What we know:
Layout: H1 3-19, H2 26-33, H3 37-43, H4 47-70, H5 76-93, H6 95-103, H7 110-135, H8 143-163, H9 170-190, H10 208-226, H11 234-251, H12 258-269, H13 275-285
Helix pairs in contact: 1-2, 1-6, 4-5, 4-7, 5-7, 5-8, 5-9, 6-8, 7-8, 10-11, 10-13, 11-12, 12-13
Amino acid sequence: MNEKKQRIMEESMKLFAEKGFHATSIQEIARKSEVSKGAFYLYFTSKEELTIEIFDYYTSLIMDKFSLIQKQEKDAKQKLVEQITFFLDLITNHKEYMIMHLRDNIHIGQDINDLVLKLNQRAFEWIKTALTEIYGEKINPYIVDFAIHLDGILQGYSKTIVMHDLYLDNPSLANFIVDRLDNMIMGTMNMNAQAQIQIEQLSFTNVQATIKKDNIEQLINELSNTIPQLTVAADQKKQLQEAAQMIKDEVQKPKQNRVILEGILMQLKGIPLLEEQVVRLSNELAITIK
């Protein structure tokens, strides 16, 4: 991510935590971030869009790390411990993110509602994958109930860490959480208790395609927003913007030409500051580029 954009997001979280979302102005955010008000609008169209991107950025950061841990060849329960430890470390070191959640009841329209639903689904998919790897298919009837329990445990500890400014032994706490979760899961399955909520009842089970489409669109927009910041000739910037637009046009077609997409992505990947974004976009499109 562009350093200036990252700085704006970090400073705005501190201001939101200190003063509240509604009491913080864009001018204050720009001043604290040491950019002009005009520069703010290069990255965000509004304070509301900024807030949505903050939520999305930190959730993606967590989920990407969870995915990397999940792919490791090690004990499944230990992987869950490491994932929870990472989450607790992030909350401990970025308390302003949680305070921003807790301080104001932010209502900024349908966009944030849609994002919350998508983020909730990503969190559920993580828990489902982690618990299925540990307990096998026998956990399937209870997967929603246990996902709710784990989510509640993590939210409860997160709020306590933030509200009381605690610095705990996070690996120890993560082990404690996984052990208590294991007690509950084994006890529930041994008693053959009745599950309370089934996955078919969840509204987000049918939005995966929408999530993927929105993720791709967001990555393309991030790419387009980064190009003006490159230290290259104006003609090259124009060509790069045209390339980004070609990707946007192509992915909107019912039948995409993957050869065209691969060629454009390879061209853009050659620009160092665009490489990370291009790799993320390629992964989302399931296109392998060298």
